[in-house]
Design brief:
It is a single chain. With 369 residues, the protein is an alpha/beta fold. It folds into 2 domains: 11-160, 3-Layer(aba) Sandwich (Rossmann fold); 165-367, Dehydroquinate synthase-like, alpha domain, CATH 1.20.1090. It is built from 13 helices and 8 strands. β4, α4 and β5 form a beta-alpha-beta unit. The structure holds zinc ion (ZN). Zinc ion (ZN) is lined by residues 122-123, 173, 256, 273, 277.
Length: 369
Amino acid sequence: MLKVFCSPARYVQGRDATLELAAELIRMGLTGHVLCIAGPSARRQIEPTLIDTFGAHGIPFSILDFAGQCSVPEITRCREAAEHAEAAVILGAGGGKALDTARAVANALDLPVVCCPTVAASDAPCSALSVVYSPDGIFEKCLFYRRNPDLVLVDTAIIARAPVRYLIAGMGDALATWFEADTTHRAYKANTVGGAVTLAAMGIARLCYQTLLQDGQAAIAAVREGALTPAVERIIEANTLLSGLGFESGGLAVAHAVHNGLTVAPQTHAYLHGEKVAFGTLVQLVLEDRDSTEIQDVMAFCRSVGLPISLQDLGIASLSSEQAREIAERAIAPGESSHNEPFALSVADMQDALFAADAIGRDFAARHA
Ligand SMILES: [Zn+2]
């Protein structure tokens, strides 16, 4: 298996980076009508700046309101709007789902894509894939693209003003990165782009975890006050760039498969991707029979920043064996990243790990109340 590493063509991050968006597009040679697919709050955040800077640089653009779910009907609707507008560049602004939709539209029309996340809630912005859900929020499939985004531009002033829960969820997604890359590498399995894991991807994944441990709590404290500090900048980079490159070129394993499994439980629909991935990470550590001190360390980190450590923290007060089976079946379905583990997994293994991780988490919470 050949080693493969991929990344966006350009990554730009910093306070008020949106002011540089038009100049960055010109620098990248991305000309013509820009169709911006934006969620409602993203629109409020960036529209005035787009009017000013795109106007000053003579870049024609229009904004299409994103309806909220990255689903097949929504991708089709946005694609038709892009065709109607004769868009030459697709720009996604908002959370992971708006960006996933923008990437799907750009791929369908073979157009360049720019991602402007307004939250640092997931590892999605840098990737060459979209996660597609049914209109009512059940995980359906991943769409994989030939190329990563042409440009990812992260305005940290906007992200620092977003509700802190998003930054915490992004840390949950980033928490899985090191453990999933490590497993994929050790099992000689393929990363998300079908190659063996490079030293670069391993280094990035490790740095992602170290950054969370070092800066996580300070970043949360700052963002609770709406403050943008160097620690916040580093956590935004960990959640967006390190976790993005880390999961794609490092690989996924049980943590993300458990996330996909949890989406079949309606109780978890109010919870964010990264919140479910954090619990999925604990399930992975239990399944891999990791040292209990390591599991306790990860739980302590989760508690220190407010990430879930039990199913109760994800809205499932008591898990029935029927529901556990449903989640487990989804998590080990063919094609799921749980098969990147170095051992074969049965429904019973997965089901038992769900119950065990939950019990360890509840016990940890009781002892540290
Ligand atoms: Zn993720």
